[in-house]
Amino acid sequence: MKISGSEIRPGSVIEHNGGLWAAVKSVTVKPGKGGAFNQVELKNLIDGTKLNERFRSSETVELVTLDLKDFQFLYEEGDALVFMDVESYEQLELQKDFVGDRATFLQDGMMVSVKLYDERPIGISLPDQVVLTIAEADPVVKGQTAASSYKPAIMENGVRVMVPPFVEAGERILVDTNEIAYLRRAD
Q: What predicted TM-score, i.e. pTM, was given to this entire model?
């Protein structure tokens, strides 16, 4: 589907210069002289390179629709993560680099959404929140009465997070996987 260059918004995936690009930021610029244009920061979905591009409203670009498919995380094998298509039971191997830092939040049996373009994986979405156990937490310092005094803690997956003083080792907490931040105690 073709769209005008002025319609590109953050999150849009377009075909540009023979590549697949996701719009990260877009700003409409109306200079005093000349016509308005859309200044867009693009990120290549294949190799991760970034590009700043100007699109006039008279230009058209191809808007790409991605397929979202549900997969279940099975296990880790070396540098590869193995997922299973919940409909066809076919297995998909993705490199840890492809998943990124959030790979540490993967748990056995976790459901994820994989973005596909022509049956080729180009992105993965983990659940926004996961429940993890605190492996170790610093003790509370007496007399520390600042309004928002948080202390460092290490979760079972080895990731460090700041938690309120009342959270102890062994407790289960809800963690935001996007911000890598403590949300609340798990029920």
A: 0.69
